[in-house]
Amino acid sequence: MTTKTAPALSAASLLQLMWLASPALPVGGFSYSEVLEAAVDRAGVATESIASDWLNDQLHLTLARGDLAVVAEAITAWRKSDLTRVQQLNDWVLQTRETSELRLQAEQMGRSLLDWLRNHDGANLAHIDACARMQPTYPVAFSLAASQTAASVRDCMLAYAFGWAENMMQAALKSVPLGQSAGQRILARLARDIPAAVEAALHLQDSERQAFSPMLAILSAQHETQYSRLFRS
């Protein structure tokens, strides 16, 4: 009895995914805490343990049920050149951002990634132009970039989630604040849970996708007028 294994990802595609997940990608992700800063100020996120729990909950309750599910569908749509479907997914992201700062984050990072992609070797200019007309959000722009690799949808989602986790860990270091070792422990926990979050997102139907996170919305609205802050969200 033989066991089939998935074909190895080419070096070029693997490096492309690593690049897209890197905090060094010039899309401005480092300037957002996705409400973590407000949670530190108003919700008692003051220790490594609480910050770890907070981010782990955010991974499963918001990222997996929202952006990761969009990425899964959008990559497939880009590869099929199904622009109507991509537009629907982008509209959903825009319509479900619960505060102005969260919507501005999605739009700014989407634009920045699209600008980066325009200067990237092998870019699909027709798709880039179509994306630009959509007021692209970050999940949809990331999906366009990832769709041009030979990586599986699952691998692309893992890269998206790990990029998010690294940015959030860095935000925790600055806002809680925490030391580097604590940050690495938080990142290790998120990395262990990311595969399960990706699997859950892969199996969501459109009707099951959601962006209902009232505590995040309330804290985000408060963060918009927070007296002193480091982050834009």
CATH topology: Urease accessory protein UreF
Are there runs of 5+ residues with pLDDT below 50, and where?
none
Q: Largest beta sheet, briefly?
A: none
Count of helical stretches: 11
Strand content: under 5%
What is the terminal-to-terminal distance? 53 Å
- Into how many domains do the coordinates divide? 1
Based on secondary structure, the structural category is mainly alpha
Shape: globular
CATH top level? Mainly Alpha
Radius of gyration: 17 Å
Q: What is the name of the CATH superfamily?
A: Urease accessory protein UreF
Number of strands: 0
Strand/helix succession: HHHHHHHHHHH
Mean of residue pLDDT?
93
CATH architecture: Orthogonal Bundle
Fraction of helical residues: 55-70%
Summary, kept brief:
The chain has 233 residues and is mostly helical. Helices cover 66% and strands 0% of the residues.
Task: Walk me through this protein's architecture.
Helices cover 66% and strands 0% of the residues. The protein is mostly helical and 233 residues long.
